[in-house]
Amino acid sequence: MASITHPGHEHEHEHHGPPSGIMRWLTTTNHKDIGTLYLWFSFIMFLTGGVMALTIRSELFQPGLQVVDPEFFNQLTTLHGLVMVFGAIMPAFVGFANWQIPMMIGAPDMAFARMNNWSFWLLPPAALLLITSFFVPGGAAAGGWTLYPPLSTQMGMGMDMTIFAVHILGASSIMGSINIVTTILNMRAPGMTLMKMPLFVWTWLITAYLLLAVMPVLAGAVTMLLTDRQFGTNFFNAAGGGDPVMFQHIFWFFGHPEVYIMILPAFGIVSQIIPTFARKPLFGYSSMVYATASIAILSFIVWAHHMFTVGMPVTAQLFFMYATMLIAVPTGVKVFNWTATMWRGSMTFEAPMLFAIGFIFLFTIGGFSGIVLAVVPVDIQLQETYYVIAHFHYVLVSGSLFALFGGTYYWLPKWTGYMYDETLAKTHFWLSMIFFNVTFFVQHFLGLAGMPRRVPDYALQFADFNMISSIGAFGFGFSQLLFLYVIIKCVRGGAKATDQVWEGADTLEWTLPSPAPYHTFETPPQVSFDEYHVQNVQNVHNK
Amino acid sequence: MNQDANHYYIPTPSAWPIVGATAIFFMGFGAAFTVNKIPLGYVSLAIGFAILIYMLFGWFGTVAKESESGKFNKQVDSSFRWGMGWFIFTEVMFFAGFFGALYYMRILSVPWLGDLEHKLLWPDFAGGWPTSGPGITDKFTPMGAWGLPAINTALLLTSGVTVTWAHWALKVNKRGQLKLGLFLTILLGVLFLGCQIYEYGHAYSELNLKLTTGAYGASFFMLTGFHGFHVTLGALMLTVIFFRVLAGHFKPEHHFGFEGVAWYWHFVDVVWLGLFIFVYWLV
User: Fold this and answer.
1) Alpha-helix residue ranges (DSSP H) falling in B109-147
2) Number of domains in chain B
3) B183/B45 same-domain check
């Protein structure tokens, strides 16, 4: 660069600081700003999806129809799923990726800073399409978040709005993933070799590849839905030689890797938190990397376990059953490695650690119920029951979401420069932990007893457990307002955070001041590692 | 890693992304309303497209200017390579979804519909390919492979050669050959599109082969249609590159803008070969 001079041309290193006011957020190319945008957006969507969940639980508080009519109930379950998956969990992890990946690998920013901004700003139009679809004739999509035909080929224009929302969300995810892959592969600081990267970076690299492979397939699936609905194609219509089951195959080819897209970055966050608070390096670092990669690869050959009851050859059922169970092996490696990291560690239990340990306990329960569901004869019994609901909320709420909470508390002092209120954060943990289990543990019993999902009314024998579950849901929902309060309190001030923040933390971001300056690592640091993966950083120029 | 990372170019705040997001907002609502024949939808869609085109010109113009003023060092260049490469991978996966649907219908769902279990419902349906399915009885003729499609294959393969010929010229700074090669590539691409349009007309008017012609019609038109759409995009990209060449852009050692488009053009070419074999030939 320096060798080529263009007289009279603008200088590339002019940093006037960001524009002020709303324009800062609309035009930003800064990974920290964009990370913040992602995190706030996902929290708003989390509350939106949460309100839908609480409406669902209000209706299910008692048998009979009290609060909403069945059509609207179905719209709520559908949109709750779509909003939580695409609006809350995924963008929240991308927010963490934006904030943390450049700081953890010693890069000045994301590789494509403008495209990064576009990835974020595609989300609000998509969210608007989803939310406003409640108000169009026929209401929002009501066929479940999986959008199965023939229901989804019959509904009103809310379904079309959902389809285009999914297209836009997919485009956003693809651009975000290209950015993350390129940043990690091309912008690591000298000395930060692949097998020295923090595990959060590794899990995101692998997650980004999953996104690149499956988001286009989802785009194709919903495109076929659209043309079947509006342009007379027959992909999912048997009279034309197509097959509604084909949609399920294509959808779950996307959908199963999607499940891991939502959990692998959570593994990454937990793998950062546990060593810090156990004050020991992560046990089995390379096995963690290989386990993550194995889970990602296996995720492509298990999709039909979501559809054991649609009718398929027994050999296919057996293949998908065993392939699914195989995933328990690398997942087990991870759980044991986290446990071994804590073994004889000098542990303390601040809020991030509480959430990480809560994650290990509850995610493992969700993993086990997943293995139960993988068993074909059992699954045929439990398909479309509350057991499935309980299972995936254990992996998505007490899995992904708990990791997000833990990660937020872990890095909040680095982001804001202030310590959060530890007492309130611990209260948030215990309230979440208790109310989560009150809500979802009983749903296992409901499912085993045969209560179907996606119905607004149920037989009388399910009444008690449903009432308990609804009480838990409201407790869990209101506990999250405490989370919001802790964050706002921390953003506004509090005890000054040190640069190191956590005694046992050893990744690159902790060598930066708190709060992290607007631009970091404009000159890459020189990183070296001792035999225990503990890094030694030189030449950190912070501005 | 790269030692010259000190100078990685981080752009200053930019309005193009939010302009693009505004375009997508209008296009998303516009498309949803348009397919439901709500008049407001057409307007919204048109506004969205107009903003998108404005954004594309502005954004790519900015990037071209930055590139020509020497802001992109080797590391930025390799970011572009990773980015474009993985973008093309996502395009491959998009087509894989549609090829998968073709495979599923040909190998699985159509034969199932012709098997013994389905005789009660559709006694006369044999389950062969190409088919419009058991419930659509309109007669149609499938598209033959060795007429226009074979000519199209030749056109696209030749265009792959001409774009490489142009690239060779760029690398040794022969600007005349570069311009000629690019021009020929665009010409072949446009000829290909013209033949596709003629073929669609032929299918609709003489073969009674339509988008609504069951499994065969859906897979034929969706696969070739999305491919044609990508050829259109590729040809537009080539045109932009052509005008940049005319304006004196690109140097023998620094021209990823050109290479990225060439990669994309080859990708479009390879997808066509898949189409020619599985959609046209093996019928």
Assistant:
1) 110-113
2) 2
3) no
Q: What CATH code is carried by the domain that includes residue B170?
A: 1.20.120.80
pLDDT in tens, A237-285: 999 999 999 999 999 999 999 999 999 999 999 999 999 999 999 999 9
**Rounded CA gap, A420 and A351, in Å?**
10
* pLDDT mean across residues, chain A: 94
Of B4, B32, B79, nearest to A186 by CB-CB distance is B79
Residues of B in Cβ contact (< 8 Å) with A239? 133-136, 214
Catalytic residue numbers of A read: 80, 109, 145, 172-173, 256, 258, 260, 271, 305-306, 331, 334, 453
Q: For the segment A82-128, what is each residue's pLDDT rounded down to a tens digit?
A: 999 999 999 999 999 999 999 999 999 999 999 999 999 999 999 99
- Claim to verify: residue B84 and residue B153 sit in the same structural domain: yes
Instruction: Give whole-number Cα distances, A82 to A46, A175, A252, B275, B276, in Å.
Output: 11, 20, 15, 34, 38
Give the bridge partners for B254, in sequence order. Answer: B251
B58 and B84 share one domain: no
Same domain, yes or no: B81 and B221: yes
Report yes or no for ipTM above 0.85.
yes
Please check whether residues B81 and B217 belong to one and the same domain.
Answer: yes
Specify the pTM: 0.94
pLDDT computed for residue A313 by the predictor: 92
Question: Which residues does A480 contact at the CB level (< 8 Å), separation at least 6?
Answer: A46, A47, A50, A432
Contact residues on chain B for A231, CB-CB shorter than 8 A:
211-212
A187 CB near a chain B CB, below 8 Å?
A: yes
Domain that holds residue B108: 73-281
